[in-house]
Amino acid sequence: MNNLFNLNLKYFTLERVNIFYYSFQNREILKRHCKEYFISCLSAQDLDKAYTYKLPVLIQRTIASKALTRLILSNYLNNKRPVDITIQVGQYGKPFIPNSTIYFSISHCETAFLMGVSKDDELGVDIENLKGYSYHHLVDMVLSVEEKKYYQSMPIELQEQTFLSFWTKKEALLKANGTGIKDNLNQLDTIKLFNKQYRPQYWCREIVIDKDHQAHVVGKYINRGD
């Protein structure tokens, strides 16, 4: 994966998943990487999608996200040319490679791209950046009864992080299941769900990036290996 390290891509392993992180925060570097590395990796369809946006920064983030997905997958597919990799999406938008046992999930926010890849488990990843917002108006809609109690027990300065911790767990779980975001998120209790006594087929880990981001990966066992 040496070609990826030229892009300042962070790489580490959690459980049975390889995690990749790329920062969008330096606009000049992002612009240069798009020009020198990313555009050549994309299909005409990818580029058409990117250029539906009007703002240059949104175009660049889209190009970077799609190109990084292909560049990373190339390393798991015998260094197949990124532009030649076929990526399809399921009914609810989950991306996959046809006739492959490589599982992957991607997420991005205003400041970062995140991707998880596994040869063992279906997975989902989600990343959000902390902005100093209050999510109090969303608590009843998103959090379960027990999650809400935990959220309300936290000091005000930690409530945004706590809310986004629950949010990223839920979104990562739904991505792992291939179902996408649902309306009844408050019926999904991650406190109970990730207790192995109740759901031994799942595992969940926080992805520690920095103090400005909250992220999680959820795996759904396909090949237990035990």
UniProtKB/TrEMBL annotation:
4'-phosphopantetheinyl transferase domain boundaries: 123-211
GO BP, one annotated term: lysine biosynthetic process via aminoadipic acid
GO CC annotation: cytosol
Keywords, comma-separated and alphabetical: Transferase
InterPro entries from the UniProt entry: 4-PPantetheinyl_Trfase_dom, 4-PPantetheinyl_Trfase_dom_sf, P-Pant_transferase_sf
Keyword Repeat: no
Keyword Transferase attached: yes
Highest taxon, organism lineage: Bacteria
GO molecular function, one term: holo-[acyl-carrier-protein] synthase activity
Similarity section: Belongs to the P-Pant transferase superfamily. Gsp/Sfp/HetI/AcpT family.
Protein name listed in UniProt: 4'-phosphopantetheinyl transferase superfamily protein
Classification of source organism: Bacteria, Pseudomonadati, Pseudomonadota, Betaproteobacteria, Burkholderiales
